[in-house]
From TrEMBL:
Keywords: DNA recombination, DNA-binding, Transposition. The keyword DNA-binding applies. Signal peptide: none annotated. PANTHER family: RNA-GUIDED DNA ENDONUCLEASE RV2885C-RELATED, TRANSPOSASE. This is Transposase, IS605 OrfB family. In the N-terminal section; belongs to the transposase 2 family. In the C-terminal section; belongs to the transposase 35 family. One of its GO terms (biological process) is transposition. It comes from Methanohalophilus mahii (strain ATCC 35705 / DSM 5219 / SLP). InterPro entries: Cas12f1-like_TNB, RNA-guided_DNA_endo/Transpos, Transposase. Residues 169-273 form the Probable transposase IS891/IS1136/IS1341 domain. Residues 294-359 form the Cas12f1-like TNB domain. Coiled coil: none annotated.
Length: 383
């Protein structure tokens, strides 16, 4: 299994060469973007490179590797756009706030310095190395394509992408399981095989998002240019808030899993669930439902768990909040908002906790199915 991480390091002494290189890089991205947009459909990175490479090298004076990175990024961006069925074909515009570099060809790095290829040659920049980041310079990690990013505060950061092989773990060898139910009342609820549980509250975040919602409503009614700028600012601030919260919650969940000796964390496969359930949600709650970063939280849990050797497995989310964990009776009447009471056996509990229990149960069942199939195959082979 290959584990990847992005380590963010502040560049202490950015200069005009770096700024100008990023500007020319974004100019090249926009030039390539316009060519793809005019064609009305995505094209391969190789074909795009053939069309834009001379301009990038001769007019913009970009280095050869940069001139290869640009068509790959732009082609990939439009392929992703095409896959999003609800998004219309549109021209993608790039700002001079991010630039991709290839390891060794465009940059080399150590604990204190990153040497970057600019339009005026290779230059050394000091980086502020943090205690948590020093582990990624011990020689066990491989450096990959990385980025320089200009943040809203005007500072420049090097987003170093690192990776390394870690031992694979088989789900069939697991013995301890935990299910995670994600939601808006509680950001997450965890339940283990031996019924240890933990609630990760989201009430404060919900209140903050309601405040943002009220602000958006007032600004949208004004419709002025300054109001639109503020709307964009609020949107970015809200996304950063959710990202920080999801990082914190995922860290706490994985810590809880380590403490309980968990081998596998079960999560709901939420692919497509946002669109399929949106019509069932009242208009008043639709914004929260559609914009809540459930999948982001799951992704953070997944990669943090992988780092410490815990497997993650996704299960079918059907009826996890409607199934009685005691008698397996399924009914939408079993759940009433935050409460769960089985109409058949009268078992009662918190509805989100019931969801986490059922996810853990489905994950454990899947392990036994795999185990039994393996045994069957071995028996047939020996026969």
């Amino acid at each position: 299994m290959f584990l990847t991480k992005t380590v963010i390091l502040k560049i202490a002494n950015p200069d005009n060469d770096l700024v100008e290189t990023m500007k020319k890089y974004s100019d090249g991205m926009n030039y390539a973007s316009e060519i793809v947009f005019d064609k009305g459909k995505p094209i391969s990175a190789m074909k795009l490179q053939q069309e834009v490479y001379p301009y990038l090298r001769e007019t913009l004076k970009l280095k050869s590797q940069m001139s290869c990175n640009i068509p790959r990024q732009v082609a990939g961006c439009y392929k992703t756009l095409k896959k999003q069925k609800k998004v219309k074909w549109q021209k993608v515009e790039f700002s001079p706030s991010s630039m991709t570099f290839s390891y060794k060809r465009d940059f080399v790095i150590d604990e204190d310095t990153v040497k970057i290829t600019t339009i005026n040659g290779r230059k050394a920049y000091s980086i502020l190395n943090y205690d948590y980041a020093k582990q990624y310079f011990d020689g066990s990690w491989k450096y990959q394509a990385s980025k320089v990013v200009k943040q809203r505060d005007g500072n420049y950061y090097f987003h170093l992408c690192v990776g390394k092989e870690i031992p694979d773990k088989e789900l069939t060898d697991a013995s301890t399981f935990m299910g995670i139910d994600v939601g808006m009342n509680y950001l997450a609820v965890a339940s283990t095989t031996d019924r240890k549980c933990s609630f990760f509250a989201g009430g404060e975040i919900k209140n903050l998002r309601n405040q943002y919602k009220s602000m958006r409503k007032r600004l949208q009614s004004k419709g002025t240019l300054s109001a639109k700028r503020m709307l964009k600012y609020i949107s970015g601030k809200e996304k950063r808030l959710m990202r920080d919260v999801n990082h914190t919650i995922s860290k706490e969940i994985v810590k809880f899993a380590i403490e309980k000796g968990i081998s596998v964390i079960g999560l709901e496969d939420l692919t497509g669930i946002r669109d399929s359930t949106l019509s069932k949600v009242s208009k008043k709650r639709r914004h929260n439902h559609s914009s809540w970063a459930f999948r982001q939280l799951q992704t953070f849990i997944e990669y943090k768990a992988k780092e410490v050797g815990i497997i993650t497995h996704y299960v079918d989310p059907s009826y996890t909040s409607q199934t009685c964990i005691r008698c397996n009776h399924i009914s939408k009447n079993n759940r009433n908002r935050l409460s769960f009471r089985c109409e058949k056996c009268d078992y009662a509990n918190n509805a989100d906790l019931i969801g986490a229990m059922n996810i853990e149960h489905k994950t454990r069942d899947y392990r036994y199915i795999l185990k039994s199939q393996g045994c069957l195959s071995a028996t047939q082979t020996n026969a």
